[in-house]
Design goal:
Layout lengths: L3 H17 L6 H8 L5 H5 L3 H28 L61 H19 L3 H14 L3 H24 L5 H20 L8 H15 L4 H4 L1
Helix pairs in contact: 1-2, 1-4, 1-6, 4-5, 4-7, 5-8, 5-9, 6-7, 7-8
């Protein structure tokens, strides 16, 4: 984002997409919701396509920061100090509407424990002695914990962002220019997934990374816009661990 005004407009557009859908996102609606003088949004994004691209760019920027923070905790690099909250928009720097702590900061779920990227045992995604994943079961547990918490966050404290992304994804099927941007953004999340699986010892990290992303997208879609119930963090842990256990076994299935 080039300026605080651009960030405010983009964040407000994301919120409106989540709350009102694509039809509720207009330049005037953004001005009103953001408390800006009339015409402010048009000055930044002249067309509707430009406004959608601005929102998608900000959404991608925020999610890249989030995933980078989570990934650092797994591959053993120093985590971002006080890592990014899950919702840095008008609601405040914590979770949804500033009422809950973001993961990556000094609170885990409901502020009751250490957040991802912080010190700690399983909650801090350690390997051995908190210095990154070890091998075998340590690596599997660390990766499963991180993935489950990413999914849980996107279903709960940052549901707003996930819903907005689905709105943009559907719109991208009708706007080639938005489709190109959306596809490029998606690649930035598949690459870290491949790196994580490689670090955990996957015999086929490219294929497994893609499958992990597909699994996560399916879980979120089912819980948010499908007929499924919202899974608990423990549900997600079990499901992800079962998936990863198959991927990180001796690799016999992938060689068959």
């Amino acid at each position: 984002m080039k300026s605080q005004r651009a960030e405010l407009v983009a964040e407000t557009a994301i919120t409106l997409l989540a709350e009102r859908g694509m039809r509720g996102l207009t330049h005037r609606a953004v001005d009103e919701a953001a408390g800006l003088p009339p015409g402010s949004t048009s000055n930044l994004a002249r067309t509707r396509s430009a406004l959608l691209e601005l929102a998608l760019a900000r959404l991608t920027e925020l999610e890249v920061e989030l995933f980078s923070s989570f990934m650092a905790g797994v591959v053993g690099e120093p985590p971002v100090a006080g890592g990014p909250g899950l919702s840095a928009g008008p609601g405040g720097p914590g979770g949804r509407d500033g009422a809950e702590p973001g993961i990556g900061g000094p609170g885990g779920r409901d502020g009751a424990g250490p957040g991802i990227g912080g010190p700690g045992d399983r909650e801090g995604l350690p390997g051995r002695d908190g210095a990154g994943p070890g091998s075998g079961r340590d690596a599997l547990d660390a990766l499963a914990e991180m993935t489950a918490r990413v999914l849980w966050a996107q279903l709960t404290v940052d549901r707003r962002r996930t819903v907005a992304r689905y709105e943009l994804a559907l719109e991208a099927t009708r706007r080639p220019e938005l489709r190109a941007i959306y596809d490029r953004a998606g690649g930035r999340f598949r690459e870290p997934a491949v790196a994580l699986l490689a670090a955990a010892g996957s015999p086929d990290p490219v294929r497994h990374g893609r499958q992990l992303v597909v699994f996560g997208e399916g879980v979120m879609f089912d819980a948010i816009v499908g007929a499924g119930a919202e899974p608990t963090l423990d549900d997600l842990r079990r499901g992800v661990r079962e998936l990863l256990a198959g991927m990180l076994s001796d690799g016999s299935a992938s060689r068959a």
